[in-house]
Amino acid sequence: MEGLSAFDGIALAILIGSGLMALMRGFVREALSVTGFVAAALASLWARPVFIGLAREFIPSALIANIVTLGVIFLMVFLAVSFVTGGLVKNVKEGEDVGVIDRALGFIFGLIRGLVILGLILIVFASATPGSAAPSWMAESRIYPLVNASARVLQALAPEDSRVGQSPVIEAPSGDETRDDETPRSIEDLIRERTNEDDGA
User: Theoretical Cys-Cys bridge with 119: which of 22, 85, 151, 176, CB 3.0 to 4.6 Å?
Assistant: First the structure.
């Protein structure tokens, strides 16, 4: 499609793929299936500060200690929740018995899940390149502001001690109208600037 970047293509593939998977399975089954993943992810983020000290007593490397701590907590909670929800999933009807409304809600749920996945990818990218602005091929894509907003929401939900990297930033698009002193701006900066312009009008 004209005007879409490679990042747009990848993001749309993830969103559509997640949406279609949820459409086929229905909202109820998808919601039950993803409960274990969400619970495990949140538990690992919130419990990491509690257990990281114990892990550091046996693992000298801070990076490896964090990975092991997050991995162990995630696995334990995921298995426990999946054991409970697994029985519920089996009792939910599949195939043609899944109603139209359930499928429609499932598709919406799938799109939201895809957006969360993209937000997590952006957070990982930001943690791998701390202090750097998003590259132009990403920041200038049409879907980037939405993915950036998703990443900021996910970071806001995590405890401060478990937030990784620097918040993703929007890089000013290159062009004749770009000022020489232009610096990467976050979504909050852009909204604040727009609000000030409207108030002054």
Answer: 151
